[in-house]
Amino acid sequence: MPTQPPAATIGKYQILHLVGEGAMGAVYRALDPVLQRPVAIKVMSDAVAREQELRERFLREAQAAGSLQHPNVVTIYDFGEVDGHLYIAMEFLDGEDLEGLLARGAAPALPDKLQVAADVLGGLSYAHKRGIVHRDIKPANIRVTEDGRAKIMDFGVAHLTSQKMTRTGMTMGTPNYMAPEQVTAGPIGAPTDVFSLGAVLYELLTGRKPFAADTLHAVLYKIVSEPTPPPSALVPTLPPELDAIVARALAKDPAERYQHAADMANDLTALRATLITGVRAASASVSLNARLSATLPAGAAAPGPAAPAAPPAG
What we know:
The protein has two domains: 11-91, Phosphorylase Kinase, domain 1 (2-Layer Sandwich); 96-273, Transferase(Phosphotransferase) domain 1 (Transferase(Phosphotransferase), domain 1, Orthogonal Bundle). The protein is α+β, with helices and mostly antiparallel strands. The strands form two sheets. It has a six-stranded antiparallel sheet with strand order 1-2-3-4-6-5. It has a three-stranded antiparallel sheet with strand order 7-8-9. It is built from eleven helices and nine strands.
Protein backbone atom coordinates (compact mmCIF):
# COMPACT_ATOMS: atom_id res chain seq x y z
CA MET A 1 0.00 0.00 0.00
CA PRO A 2 1.52 3.42 -0.98
CA THR A 3 2.95 5.55 1.77
CA GLN A 4 0.78 8.54 2.50
CA PRO A 5 2.51 11.91 2.86
CA PRO A 6 2.91 12.90 6.51
CA ALA A 7 1.05 16.12 5.80
CA ALA A 8 -0.29 18.23 2.93
CA THR A 9 2.86 20.27 3.28
CA ILE A 10 6.45 19.71 4.38
CA GLY A 11 7.86 23.01 5.50
CA LYS A 12 6.84 25.50 2.82
CA TYR A 13 6.48 22.81 0.16
CA GLN A 14 3.06 21.63 -1.03
CA ILE A 15 2.99 17.84 -1.48
CA LEU A 16 1.47 16.82 -4.83
CA HIS A 17 1.88 13.05 -5.12
CA LEU A 18 4.08 10.09 -4.27
CA VAL A 19 6.89 9.35 -6.74
CA GLY A 20 8.45 6.30 -5.10
CA GLU A 21 9.65 4.77 -1.87
CA GLY A 22 12.45 2.56 -0.61
CA ALA A 23 14.62 1.75 2.37
CA MET A 24 15.60 5.38 2.91
CA GLY A 25 12.05 6.73 2.85
CA ALA A 26 9.57 8.13 0.35
CA VAL A 27 9.98 10.66 -2.46
CA TYR A 28 7.18 13.07 -3.34
CA ARG A 29 6.72 15.57 -6.09
CA ALA A 30 5.98 18.90 -4.49
CA LEU A 31 5.68 22.58 -5.31
CA ASP A 32 7.73 25.46 -3.97
CA PRO A 33 4.97 28.08 -3.70
CA VAL A 34 7.42 30.96 -3.40
CA LEU A 35 9.43 30.26 -6.55
CA GLN A 36 6.61 28.35 -8.27
CA ARG A 37 8.88 25.48 -9.26
CA PRO A 38 8.50 21.73 -8.89
CA VAL A 39 10.74 20.02 -6.35
CA ALA A 40 11.36 16.48 -5.19
CA ILE A 41 10.94 15.97 -1.44
CA LYS A 42 12.62 12.96 0.14
CA VAL A 43 11.09 12.22 3.54
CA MET A 44 13.47 10.01 5.49
CA SER A 45 12.27 6.80 7.10
CA ASP A 46 11.27 6.71 10.76
CA ALA A 47 14.28 4.47 11.47
CA VAL A 48 16.57 7.40 10.63
CA ALA A 49 14.44 9.95 12.44
CA ARG A 50 14.28 7.94 15.69
CA GLU A 51 18.05 7.55 16.20
CA GLN A 52 19.81 10.65 17.44
CA GLU A 53 23.15 9.65 15.92
CA LEU A 54 21.60 9.17 12.48
CA ARG A 55 19.59 12.37 12.78
CA GLU A 56 22.73 14.37 13.49
CA ARG A 57 24.62 12.59 10.72
CA PHE A 58 21.77 13.27 8.28
CA LEU A 59 21.74 16.99 9.01
CA ARG A 60 25.54 17.24 8.84
CA GLU A 61 25.90 15.34 5.59
CA ALA A 62 22.86 16.90 3.94
CA GLN A 63 24.49 20.26 4.59
CA ALA A 64 27.71 19.07 2.95
CA ALA A 65 25.82 17.59 -0.01
CA GLY A 66 23.87 20.83 -0.33
CA SER A 67 27.11 22.64 -1.06
CA LEU A 68 27.60 20.63 -4.28
CA GLN A 69 26.69 22.65 -7.36
CA HIS A 70 27.52 20.67 -10.50
CA PRO A 71 25.64 19.84 -13.73
CA ASN A 72 25.94 16.11 -12.98
CA VAL A 73 24.79 16.24 -9.35
CA VAL A 74 21.17 16.70 -8.33
CA THR A 75 20.92 20.10 -6.61
CA ILE A 76 19.71 20.16 -3.00
CA TYR A 77 17.63 23.25 -2.27
CA ASP A 78 16.74 22.74 1.36
CA PHE A 79 16.69 20.24 4.21
CA GLY A 80 15.47 20.08 7.76
CA GLU A 81 12.91 18.58 10.12
CA VAL A 82 9.19 19.21 10.45
CA ASP A 83 7.01 17.46 13.05
CA GLY A 84 9.62 14.75 13.53
CA HIS A 85 10.05 14.14 9.80
CA LEU A 86 13.54 14.67 8.33
CA TYR A 87 13.38 15.81 4.71
CA ILE A 88 15.44 16.99 1.78
CA ALA A 89 14.09 19.23 -0.99
CA MET A 90 15.92 18.92 -4.30
CA GLU A 91 15.50 19.70 -7.96
CA PHE A 92 12.83 17.65 -9.69
CA LEU A 93 14.11 15.96 -12.83
CA ASP A 94 12.18 14.54 -15.73
CA GLY A 95 13.64 11.37 -17.19
CA GLU A 96 14.26 7.97 -15.66
CA ASP A 97 16.65 6.26 -13.28
CA LEU A 98 19.31 4.15 -14.96
CA GLU A 99 17.90 1.16 -13.07
CA GLY A 100 14.60 1.57 -14.88
CA LEU A 101 16.28 1.94 -18.27
CA LEU A 102 18.25 -1.25 -17.71
CA ALA A 103 15.18 -3.15 -16.54
CA ARG A 104 13.28 -2.14 -19.67
CA GLY A 105 16.18 -3.01 -21.95
CA ALA A 106 16.18 0.61 -23.08
CA ALA A 107 19.89 1.29 -22.58
CA PRO A 108 21.24 3.83 -25.08
CA ALA A 109 23.74 3.28 -27.90
CA LEU A 110 27.39 2.64 -26.93
CA PRO A 111 28.62 6.26 -27.29
CA ASP A 112 25.70 7.40 -25.12
CA LYS A 113 26.47 4.73 -22.52
CA LEU A 114 30.01 6.03 -22.30
CA GLN A 115 28.67 9.58 -21.97
CA VAL A 116 26.42 8.54 -19.06
CA ALA A 117 29.42 7.02 -17.27
CA ALA A 118 31.57 10.08 -18.01
CA ASP A 119 28.83 12.37 -16.66
CA VAL A 120 28.69 10.42 -13.39
CA LEU A 121 32.47 10.47 -13.11
CA GLY A 122 32.43 14.23 -13.66
CA GLY A 123 30.05 14.67 -10.74
CA LEU A 124 32.10 12.31 -8.58
CA SER A 125 35.33 14.12 -9.39
CA TYR A 126 33.77 17.42 -8.31
CA ALA A 127 32.54 15.91 -5.03
CA HIS A 128 35.79 14.06 -4.29
CA LYS A 129 37.78 17.27 -4.60
CA ARG A 130 35.56 18.62 -1.82
CA GLY A 131 36.09 15.60 0.40
CA ILE A 132 32.69 13.99 -0.22
CA VAL A 133 32.46 10.30 -1.19
CA HIS A 134 29.06 8.98 -2.30
CA ARG A 135 29.53 5.35 -1.12
CA ASP A 136 26.44 3.99 -2.87
CA ILE A 137 26.77 4.54 -6.61
CA LYS A 138 24.29 2.24 -8.36
CA PRO A 139 21.82 2.49 -11.27
CA ALA A 140 18.97 3.55 -8.96
CA ASN A 141 21.02 6.59 -7.86
CA ILE A 142 21.74 7.78 -11.40
CA ARG A 143 19.07 9.83 -13.14
CA VAL A 144 19.18 10.11 -16.94
CA THR A 145 17.31 13.25 -18.00
CA GLU A 146 15.26 13.58 -21.16
CA ASP A 147 18.19 15.24 -22.92
CA GLY A 148 20.51 12.34 -22.04
CA ARG A 149 22.46 13.94 -19.19
CA ALA A 150 23.23 11.77 -16.17
CA LYS A 151 22.91 13.18 -12.65
CA ILE A 152 23.93 11.59 -9.35
CA MET A 153 21.28 11.43 -6.65
CA ASP A 154 21.43 10.87 -2.88
CA PHE A 155 24.84 12.38 -2.20
CA GLY A 156 25.66 12.40 1.49
CA VAL A 157 22.65 10.46 2.74
CA ALA A 158 22.40 7.23 0.70
CA HIS A 159 24.50 5.27 3.19
CA LEU A 160 22.74 6.30 6.41
CA THR A 161 20.37 3.35 6.41
CA SER A 162 23.27 1.12 5.41
CA GLN A 163 25.19 2.30 8.45
CA LYS A 164 22.25 1.34 10.65
CA MET A 165 22.25 -2.09 9.00
CA THR A 166 25.97 -2.41 9.64
CA ARG A 167 25.43 -1.94 13.36
CA THR A 168 22.97 -4.82 13.33
CA GLY A 169 25.47 -7.16 11.71
CA MET A 170 24.67 -6.60 8.03
CA THR A 171 26.82 -5.18 5.27
CA MET A 172 26.97 -1.60 4.08
CA GLY A 173 26.08 -0.40 0.60
CA THR A 174 24.26 -2.08 -2.28
CA PRO A 175 25.88 -5.54 -2.59
CA ASN A 176 26.21 -5.87 -6.38
CA TYR A 177 28.01 -2.52 -6.68
CA MET A 178 30.06 -2.53 -3.46
CA ALA A 179 33.83 -2.22 -3.57
CA PRO A 180 35.96 -4.89 -1.86
CA GLU A 181 36.98 -2.46 0.88
CA GLN A 182 33.31 -1.94 1.75
CA VAL A 183 32.91 -5.69 2.17
CA THR A 184 36.03 -5.97 4.37
CA ALA A 185 35.43 -2.70 6.29
CA GLY A 186 38.56 -1.12 4.83
CA PRO A 187 39.27 2.58 4.23
CA ILE A 188 36.75 4.32 1.96
CA GLY A 189 37.82 6.93 -0.57
CA ALA A 190 37.46 8.14 -4.14
CA PRO A 191 38.52 4.74 -5.60
CA THR A 192 35.53 3.21 -3.81
CA ASP A 193 33.13 5.25 -5.93
CA VAL A 194 35.24 4.48 -9.02
CA PHE A 195 34.80 0.73 -8.39
CA SER A 196 31.03 1.10 -7.99
CA LEU A 197 30.80 3.13 -11.20
CA GLY A 198 32.90 0.45 -12.91
CA ALA A 199 30.31 -2.14 -11.85
CA VAL A 200 27.51 0.07 -13.17
CA LEU A 201 29.36 0.56 -16.47
CA TYR A 202 29.88 -3.21 -16.77
CA GLU A 203 26.15 -3.78 -16.45
CA LEU A 204 25.39 -0.95 -18.86
CA LEU A 205 27.72 -2.49 -21.46
CA THR A 206 26.77 -6.15 -21.08
CA GLY A 207 23.31 -6.23 -19.53
CA ARG A 208 24.70 -8.30 -16.64
CA LYS A 209 25.92 -7.44 -13.17
CA PRO A 210 29.64 -8.20 -12.81
CA PHE A 211 29.26 -10.07 -9.51
CA ALA A 212 25.86 -11.72 -9.87
CA ALA A 213 25.23 -14.79 -7.70
CA ASP A 214 22.36 -16.57 -5.99
CA THR A 215 23.22 -15.55 -2.43
CA LEU A 216 24.54 -12.46 -0.69
CA HIS A 217 27.54 -14.42 0.58
CA ALA A 218 28.41 -15.54 -2.95
CA VAL A 219 28.11 -11.98 -4.28
CA LEU A 220 30.45 -10.64 -1.59
CA TYR A 221 32.93 -13.47 -2.19
CA LYS A 222 33.03 -12.66 -5.91
CA ILE A 223 33.57 -8.96 -5.20
CA VAL A 224 36.55 -9.67 -2.94
CA SER A 225 38.11 -12.72 -4.57
CA GLU A 226 37.00 -13.50 -8.13
CA PRO A 227 38.09 -11.73 -11.32
CA THR A 228 35.36 -10.48 -13.63
CA PRO A 229 35.22 -11.64 -17.27
CA PRO A 230 36.01 -8.73 -19.61
CA PRO A 231 32.93 -7.07 -21.13
CA SER A 232 33.96 -8.19 -24.62
CA ALA A 233 33.70 -11.83 -23.48
CA LEU A 234 29.94 -11.23 -23.24
CA VAL A 235 29.60 -8.68 -26.06
CA PRO A 236 32.33 -9.39 -28.66
CA THR A 237 31.57 -6.22 -30.62
CA LEU A 238 32.81 -3.99 -27.77
CA PRO A 239 36.17 -2.33 -28.41
CA PRO A 240 39.11 -3.86 -26.50
CA GLU A 241 39.95 -0.48 -24.97
CA LEU A 242 36.82 -0.81 -22.86
CA ASP A 243 38.08 -4.07 -21.36
CA ALA A 244 41.17 -2.26 -20.09
CA ILE A 245 39.19 0.69 -18.69
CA VAL A 246 36.69 -1.55 -16.88
CA ALA A 247 39.42 -3.85 -15.57
CA ARG A 248 41.25 -0.90 -14.03
CA ALA A 249 38.06 0.46 -12.45
CA LEU A 250 37.23 -2.97 -10.98
CA ALA A 251 40.69 -3.77 -9.62
CA LYS A 252 40.39 -5.47 -6.23
CA ASP A 253 43.19 -3.34 -4.75
CA PRO A 254 42.12 0.33 -4.51
CA ALA A 255 45.72 1.38 -5.28
CA GLU A 256 45.47 -0.30 -8.70
CA ARG A 257 42.28 1.53 -9.72
CA TYR A 258 41.86 4.97 -11.18
CA GLN A 259 42.77 7.21 -8.27
CA HIS A 260 40.80 10.11 -9.70
CA ALA A 261 37.37 9.85 -11.27
CA ALA A 262 38.41 12.48 -13.81
CA ASP A 263 41.11 10.17 -15.20
CA MET A 264 38.58 7.45 -15.97
CA ALA A 265 36.23 10.06 -17.44
CA ASN A 266 39.02 11.27 -19.73
CA ASP A 267 39.68 7.74 -20.98
CA LEU A 268 35.99 7.13 -21.67
CA THR A 269 35.58 10.50 -23.38
CA ALA A 270 38.59 9.88 -25.63
CA LEU A 271 37.28 6.43 -26.59
CA ARG A 272 33.81 7.86 -27.23
CA ALA A 273 35.26 10.50 -29.55
CA THR A 274 37.10 7.78 -31.48
CA LEU A 275 33.91 5.73 -31.82
CA ILE A 276 31.87 8.70 -33.01
CA THR A 277 34.54 9.71 -35.53
CA GLY A 278 34.65 6.17 -36.88
CA VAL A 279 30.86 5.98 -37.20
CA ARG A 280 30.72 9.32 -38.99
CA ALA A 281 33.52 8.32 -41.35
CA ALA A 282 31.80 5.03 -42.20
CA SER A 283 28.48 6.81 -42.69
CA ALA A 284 30.07 9.38 -44.97
CA SER A 285 31.68 6.64 -47.06
CA VAL A 286 28.34 4.81 -47.48
CA SER A 287 26.62 8.07 -48.41
CA LEU A 288 29.28 8.92 -50.99
CA ASN A 289 29.04 5.50 -52.63
CA ALA A 290 25.25 5.82 -52.75
CA ARG A 291 25.52 9.17 -54.52
CA LEU A 292 28.07 7.85 -56.99
CA SER A 293 25.93 4.79 -57.76
CA ALA A 294 22.99 7.05 -58.59
CA THR A 295 25.01 8.85 -61.29
CA LEU A 296 26.52 5.76 -62.99
CA PRO A 297 25.16 4.23 -66.20
CA ALA A 298 22.95 1.18 -65.77
CA GLY A 299 24.98 -1.94 -65.02
CA ALA A 300 28.12 -0.04 -63.98
CA ALA A 301 29.59 -0.68 -60.53
CA ALA A 302 30.33 2.01 -58.00
CA PRO A 303 34.03 2.52 -57.42
CA GLY A 304 35.60 0.79 -54.44
CA PRO A 305 38.25 2.27 -52.18
CA ALA A 306 41.07 3.96 -54.06
CA ALA A 307 44.07 1.72 -54.73
CA PRO A 308 47.33 2.75 -53.10
CA ALA A 309 49.60 4.79 -55.37
CA ALA A 310 52.37 2.91 -57.14
CA PRO A 311 55.81 3.45 -55.73
CA PRO A 312 58.04 5.80 -57.73
CA ALA A 313 60.11 4.11 -60.40
CA GLY A 314 63.76 3.44 -60.01
